[in-house]
Amino acid sequence: VQGTGGSSAISKCSAAARGYIQDRFLRLLVGRRRRRAPLVHRGYYIRARAIDHCVQDFLLKTQCHPRTQIVSLGAGFDSLYFRLKDIGLLHHTVVYEVDFPNVACQKAALIKRMKELSALVGDVGGEGLGVITFSGEDYKLLGVDLSKLPELERALEEAGLDNEIPTLFIAEVVLTYMENSRSDALIQWAAEHFSQACFLLYEQIHPEDPFGRVMQQHFRQLNSALNSLAQYPDCEAQQRRFFEKGWTECSVMDMNEFFTCCTPEDEQQRVQALEPFDEYEEWHLKCSHYFVLTASKGMEPSWTPLLSNMTVPRSDGPVGMAGSITATVCAMHSEISGLRRYGHHSLLIKPNVILTTGGFGEEDGHHCRMRSFHVLIKHAGYWKAGYVKKENPDKRRDERLYHTVSCVSNSLALVVGGRTSPSSASLGMLWLKFPEICNASEAEDITVELVSLQPAAEPAASRWRHSATEVIFKGEKYLFVYGGRSAIEPVLGDWYFLHTQELSCTEIPVEGPVPESRHSHSACGWKGGVLIAGGLGAAEQPLGSIFFLRELEHGFQWQTVETHPLLIPRYSHTAHVHDGRLLLVGGVWFHSSSVPALTVIDLITGLCLNYMINVEHVEWPLMLHNHSSVFLTNEKELLLIGGGGNCFSFGTHLNPEPVSLSLSHILASH
């Protein structure tokens, strides 16, 4: 448990060094320095922002009181006191920090040794006494095990804590490491013993979805299990907990909601521009698995820092489900991994032959951008996996993520765009040529020749997380390249009609309301036009709109597709059209507990039906984002390939094997 505190201090320090948070004291309190990934920076930024927002609100609301106090439970090497003191917010507030005795002693020694820190506390002379390892006029550092309530109470009393003045308790990922009976007792004690009390809690939620399972496993491996989750799995359960333990007011929001509603727009934009970033899925999943809660009692006026300054698109309870679909791991006749990857592309190049290219994944036991082309061949009811022989391989062109691959004939596919890293993305286009075989039963039977292209249509190809869909205009085939993002633009709303024979962009008139810019959306060909669904918009907010680019005599026209009920905003999903119905598979959304794994939209009536995926036969967490999917029309079977990603600081999870969903019962004729 103490190790988790040290690790989070290093992460906060790294976030401060990159300008996410303003904190010049962390580097003095944290011995080791390590550069963390942008995803981790964002995660610790939103945590620090939530705590600071609530603490400063408490100090502002209580500034008319002659004395107030803050009790930071499990404070570790946090710099809160020094930051508040430095900006002049502690005129009449005493800060008490509590942690394990050895942590408190280490921190006390650090403060005494560092001039910059000891100068702020003021020189009080004399060593700390007993459990009080450091004592300044407005700062007390106590070494006590929080789970021993009588000892905690004695120590705080001895240090001068007053139970009659406004008091803020802070527990930032602390209580969950204690047994529930002990953390409950602490929450109740604070409500009962202090006449004007506030409580600020930041912790994890949603243990049972795929991301939650990976998160729990990570903490179990660190020997610091998250004990709160079983009894208090969501925001509502945590809120009930505080009401039951004697608090009269309580508000709670997950971190997606906090970032959207309690972080000013200019601040959101500042953070989004700090460093190249492309892990939106994991950022939003991380934020949907942490919450901030504020509770109070006896406070006049009441303390409500989590009242959002805008109306948030709150989910109105769980979404109605039309049924469930059972997922089964594909019966395979080979032991080749190769499909543990994300950000790749899979397509049916022949009946029962699926080619998968690119992505980031696992090869020879380590994680890397994938160079190998992988093929799945269905033979006698089983899938065989293998690697394809490549002619003219080229490392720079082969390794790409978030590209598109489109078949333009029986022996030719076009690769458009993609990226290596988020700051370099001009990978252009590539032809994949494969023989016109019909009876391949082994991967070795298939060779793919790579042919680089002169960047005639450079703007169309300098993007990733876009879509490329075949459309027909006046009898000619075009690829409609739409949306995505680039190294310069975080979201694109433009489009190109790429003539598949000449590979040149053709001007075709398009009328109607232009969809808002988006990436990570889905696109399917339908009736000679394109259906665009969902995606991530300009403010990194998921979109719930569906547009149809419809063919007219003289060009195309954008039309809005209305659904009822409304489609839940999502991105990073896949999509297919079958028999006048649009199937949306997986994706990321903001309210993790309430969104289905498969949505079926009737394109004639607009009826939108949601289905759960039953994963009882899948032994590992099935992550349905950054995956690819192939729809086998005859069998009405959906094959999910790859998917997953870097789960914040909890490690990388990649779906190990392809999964099959049989849709015949829900796609039975109208």
Molecular structure report:
The chain is of the alpha+beta class. The protein has two domains: 2-297, 3-Layer(aba) Sandwich (Rossmann fold); 321-662, Kelch-type beta propeller (Neuraminidase, 6 Propeller). Helices cover 23% and strands 30% of the residues. It has an eight-stranded mixed beta sheet, with helices on both faces. It has an eight-stranded mixed beta sheet with strand order 31-32-33-34-9-39-36-35, with no helix packed on it. A five-stranded mixed beta sheet has the order 17-21-20-19-18. The longest helix is centred in the first third of the chain and has 24 residues, at 38-61. The radius of gyration is 28 Å and the shape is elongated. It starts with a helix and ends in an 8-residue tail after the last strand. The relative contact order is 0.09. The mean pLDDT is 91. Its EC number is 2.1.1.290, 2.3.1.231. Interacts with RNF144B/IBRDC2.
